[in-house]
Amino acid sequence: MSVAKKEYKKVTVQSLTEMKSHGEKISMLTAYDFTMAHIVDQAGVDVILVGDSASNVMAGHETTLPITLDQMIYHASSVIRAIKRALVVVDIPFGSYQSDPKEALRSAIRIMKESGGHAVKLEGGEEIKESVKRILNAGIPVMGHLGLTPQSIYKFGTYSVRAKEEAEAKKLIEDALLLESLGCFALVLEKIPAKLAAKVAAQLSIPVIGIGAGAGVDGQVLVIHDLLGMTKEFSPRFLRRYMNLYEDMTKAIGQYVSDVKEKDFPNAQEQY
User: Catalytic residue at 190?
Assistant: First the structure.
C-alpha cells in the first residue's frame, strides 16, 4: 500500500532529507532567469540549480570556467525573484573557492547576501574540505558534487564517464562519505556508473542527486535547455528530451518573419 507523499509549500534542505527517508524521488532542474525559473517553480520542481552551466547555455562558452562570481549572483538574483516553493542552490564558480578557504567563504557569503540564494554547491572532495568546512561553519548550506566535475575539464581532458576504474571509484566513495561527515546536506553525482552511484546513495543518509548516474539515486537533475530540446548538439545517453523547442521556435519565428514580410502582421484586429 503506497503512502501519500507529503506536500511541501516550501522546500528546504530538511525537506530533501525527509524525501529520501520516505523513498520519494527528488526533482531538480537548472534555471538562470526570472521567466524560466517561474515556470520551473510553478511546475513543481523541488530544487532549482543556478548552475555554472549558464556559461555554456546562456553565454555560449565551451566550458563552465569563464563565468564569474558577479555573473552567477546576477543569474541567481533573477531566479530568486521568481520562485515561491523550490529550494534554490547556486554554483560557486571556478576560481572562487579552490585556492583559499577564506576566499571560498567570501564567495559563498556574497552569493547568499546579494542573490538571496538558499544554498551553494561546490565541486570536489578531499581537496576542498577546508573550504566546505569554513562555509558550513558560517551557517551556509552546502551541496557537494563528485564524479564528472566540469570545472576540472582540463584536468580530465574529456567529458567521458568517471570512476570506472577501481581506484577512482574508491576515492569517490571516500569523498562522498567525507562530504557527508563535514555536514553537506546533499550530493550531486555526475556521469558515473549506475551501480557505483546506487552504492553511494545506499551508504549515505543525505540525498544523492544524479545526472547520468542511473536510477538508483535519490533524485535527478538536468539542464532545462536540454530537457526542453532547445539545444541540438548535446545528446548524451542520459538526456531525455521532453520537447523539441529548437524546431518549434525556429518554425514560429520563421512564420513571424514571413508574416511581417508579407504584410500579414499586424492585421486589422492587432492594431489600435
Answer: yes
CA nearest neighbour of 53 among 197, 268, 224: 224
Look at residue 106 and tell me if it is in a domain.
Answer: yes
- Catalytic option among 126, 190, 247, 270: 190
Q: Which of 83, 53, 231, 45 lies closest to 149, judged by CA?
A: 53
Residue 149 and residue 254 in one domain? no
Which pLDDT tens digit goes with each residue over 197-245?
999 999 999 999 999 999 999 999 999 999 999 998 888 899 999 999 9
Domain membership of residue 209 as a residue range: 13-241
Asked if 255 and 146 sit in the same domain, the reply is no
For 236, phi then psi, to 5°, come to -70, 160
Give per-residue pLDDT as tens, 9-42.
999 999 999 999 999 999 999 999 999 999 999 9
